[in-house]
Design goal:
By secondary structure, the protein is of the alpha/beta class. Helix content is 34%, strand content 17%. The chain is built from eleven helices and 13 strands. The radius of gyration is 21 Å and the shape is globular.
């Protein structure tokens, strides 16, 4: 090991990875370090922060080595561990469940924008609408296309805004109610998941139905999930139900990647004053009580609702807006939380390899 190699390693050990509570050495992100060349690999996409991060790394490593260092930074999305007794599905590296303890908190809107944000950053992403009784993703994706079946047994996903999507809403009349008992709902979701010819996906976002009843429990016990996200609003009644959803995932050994606080505040379009209509700090209190991070806060904004109802969610309808940036930040923290799971719990960061001159 050269002096330059040691100096570079020390600089990396003192530098934090964006969105991840770790340094480059502890995360195992170093593929090659020979004092002149440094290859780093992350398990999640940095999106529009990639180039700035790369320039920052070149600067600190060159300064540490006392000469220019050739630095590369690439992304490899690993397949992470799922519940005991289950195996990840072929072609789907990671399933992320988006859940809420109760309805009306904007979970489906968050799911759609989360999937689109991961896609925009470079991931291969799918979206499964698991709300059999009230499927909303066809409307949010702006399509009512019927899935095609090439063999009479399986279905091709409906492509919408670059996402591979599937929903019971594609298969039934939008005005007809789904009057099914619990076992039928569970079976239907299982079929939507396993009988769809998904392309190779880094992430499949599942928009779960609200609540923590028998249907939700059956789903998370049968579907191999790499991580989950809880959506809540700030008021106490929503937080009570959100915690039930969080504890449900823990009971079935699904890691909770974090809490998203939706409708956290409203900003007046005229004067800019911020109002906390549903209370303040509820997501943070839930996170502190349960030991999970807050992935982000989203505003109560009519523009988000109008974009979703119009079939073009905020991330693609207004990509330069503050709201779209908030969704992208949440998506990166979610992906980073999954990639940063400790060794033995599904982490796929590469091992460090140090090459002597």
């Amino acid at each position: 090991m050269t002096i330059s190699t040691e100096a570079i390693a020390a600089a990396l050990a003192a530098d934090r990875i964006p969105y991840l509570d770790s340094d480059w050495i502890s995360a195992g992100a170093v593929r090659v370090n020979d004092g002149q060349r440094l290859d780093l690999v992350l398990g999640f996409h940095l999106g529009d922060r990639h180039e700035a991060t790369l320039e920052h790394l070149r600067a600190i490593c060159s300064r540490a080595a006392g000469r220019p260092v050739n630095v590369s930074l690439s992304t490899e999305i690993g397949t992470h561990a799922v519940q005991a007794g289950l195996r990840p599905l072929a072609r789907i590296h990671n399933i992320i469940a988006v859940a809420s303890g109760k309805g009306g908190v904007g979970k489906s809107t968050v799911s759609a924008n989360l999937a689109l944000a991961l896609l925009a950053d470079g991931g291969r992403v799918g979206l499964l609408d698991a709300d059999i009784y009230g499927p909303s993703q066809p409307r949010m994706m702006g399509t009512s296309e019927r899935p095609q079946s090439p063999d009479g047994k399986t279905m091709l996903p409906v492509m919408a805004h670059g996402l591979a999507t599937m929903s019971i809403g594609y298969l039934i009349d939008a005005s007809e109610p789904t009057i099914w008992r619990g076992p039928m709902v569970t079976q239907a979701l299982q079929q939507l998941l396993t009988e769809t010819q998904w392309p190779e996906l880094d992430y499949l976002i599942i928009d779960l139905p609200p609540g923590t009843g028998d249907t939700q429990l059956s789903l998370v016990q049968r579907i191999p999930v790499s991580g989950s996200v809880i959506v809540t609003t700030p008021q106490d009644i929503a937080l009570l139900d959100a915690r039930k959803g969080l504890e449900m995932f823990r009971k079935v050994q699904v890691p909770v990647l974090g809490v998203i606080e939706n409708m956290a505040y409203h900003r007046c379009g005229n004067c800019g004053e911020v109002s906390h209509i549903f209370g303040e700090g509820g997501g943070q209190r839930l996170a502190e009580a349960t030991g999970v991070p807050v992935l982000g806060q989203l505003p109560l904004d009519a523009a988000i609702q109008l974009a979703a109802d119009g079939g073009r969610p905020t991330v693609i309808a207004e990509p330069a807006s503050d709201n779209a940036q908030a969704y992208r930040e949440i998506a990166r923290r979610t992906a980073a939380g999954l990639a940063g799971r400790v060794q033995g719990q599904g982490s796929r960061f590469p091992d460090i390899v140090i090459v002597d001159d």
